[in-house]
Design goal:
Radius of gyration: 28 Å
Number of domains: 2
Number of strands: 0
Order of helices and strands: HHHHHHHHHHH
Number of helices: 11
CATH topology of the largest domain: Ferritin
Strand content: under 5%
Helix content: over 70%
Shape: elongated
CATH class of the largest domain: Mainly Alpha
Structural class: mainly alpha
Largest sheet: none
Length: 330
């Protein structure tokens, strides 16, 4: 008897085609329970900032709970009170769900897309499973589950229309974009600007003073990594995000630190080339690309007028670059 219910660690994962009708019902029950909890977690995460979207996920969680109760009633009528402890992770060819914490950290739009994928994935699986079944009752059961999942998708659309009007959807999308800018773009842009501009003087001063590409690379590497660590910790430590609404400090620190390091490494890496002038020309081209990338980001996400952003960044970067070259060549 135990061999029929052998799970991972006791003979490996089961195959869906080897499950009995009782096990299929048990699996459907646990799947509905898991999906209901996922939607409830999304709703709790969004309730304060996006109440209308939270209401959508509350409704979807209620739908999952209703189907769970229907499945339990069907199971009790056929197989009694004991529900076989069978879950998705116990079946090798069953669909899986992404961890809730991963999707939560990706924002509102990602949660919406994940919900659509959840319903579609479950529906497609049950349709395929029903097509492979040779038992009439099991085939009917799987077909009913496929229909239920398709109904969930329709219900999700209805709930979206009910709770998210055009204005509400636009308001929440704007709030989501603003949060993305505050948490990732703003600190990342500050880091890119610091890494790209502040390292220009020491790198090019070293290059023209020594004309040694390896020494220049080591100076650039140390300046970039050091600046990245400093910027990352500074960003994370000076604001916990609770009052400012700028998001988790570790996210902002990560964005700032990584972009600072990349900004400096961009024009340090060419000095791995042994030829001084070849490395310098490539580094100058990289600097030009970096500065224009900063201008584009400022214009695209920070809504800074293009001419103003170009003037500020190119003038400032050019002055710092000139200073490094003049000092190094003195």
């Amino acid at each position: 008897m135990l061999s029929r219910f052998s799970l991972s660690g006791f003979g490996g994962k089961r195959r869906f085609q080897d499950l009995s009708e009782q096990e299929v019902l048990a699996l459907a029950i646990s799947s509905e329970e898991d999906d209901g909890r996922i939607y409830a977690a999304y709703a709790a995460k969004l309730r304060q900032a996006y109440p209308s979207s939270a209401a959508v996920f509350d409704g979807m969680a209620a739908e999952e709970d209703q189907h769970r109760r229907q499945l339990i009633e069907a199971y009790q009528r056929r197989f009694g009170e004991f529900v076989v402890p069978l879950r998705r992770e116990h079946v090798g060819d069953f669909y899986t769900r992404r961890p809730v914490w991963l999707v939560e950290n990706l924002g509102l739009d990602r949660m919406r897309l994940e919900a659509m994928d959840m319903e579609h994935q479950a529906h497609e699986f049950y349709v395929a499973a029903a097509g492979r079944s040779t038992d009439a009752e099991t085939r009917k059961l799987l077909g009913d589950l496929a229909t239920a999942e398709a109904g969930h998708e329709a219900t999700a659309g209805h709930l979206s229309e009910q709770h998210l009007s055009g204005d509400e959807r636009q308001t929440e999308d704007m709030a989501s974009k603003r949060q993305f800018v505050l948490t990732w773009v703003q600190p990342g842009l500050a880091g890119l600007m610091d890494g790209s501009v502040s390292t220009l003087a020491p790198i090019f001063a070293t290059a023209f003073a020594t004309q040694n590409t390896w020494t220049t690379f080591l100076i650039g590497l140390s300046a970039s990594v050091g600046a990245g660590i400093s910027m990352g910790f500074t960003e994370a430590a000076h604001d916990d995000g609770k009052l400012s609404g700028r998001g988790a400090p570790w996210k902002r620190g990560l964005a700032s630190g990584v972009m600072t390091t990349l900004g400096g490494l961009g024009h340090a890496l060419p000095y791995l080339i042994p030829s001084f002038w070849t490395a310098t020309v490539i580094a100058l081209i990289v600097v030009f690309i970096e500065l224009w990338a900063i201008v584009w980001i400022q214009n695209r996400y920070m809504e800074t007028p293009f001419i103003k952003a170009a003037f500020q960044i190119l003038l400032g970067g050019g002055l710092v670059l000139a200073a490094g070259i003049i000092i190094g060549g003195a």
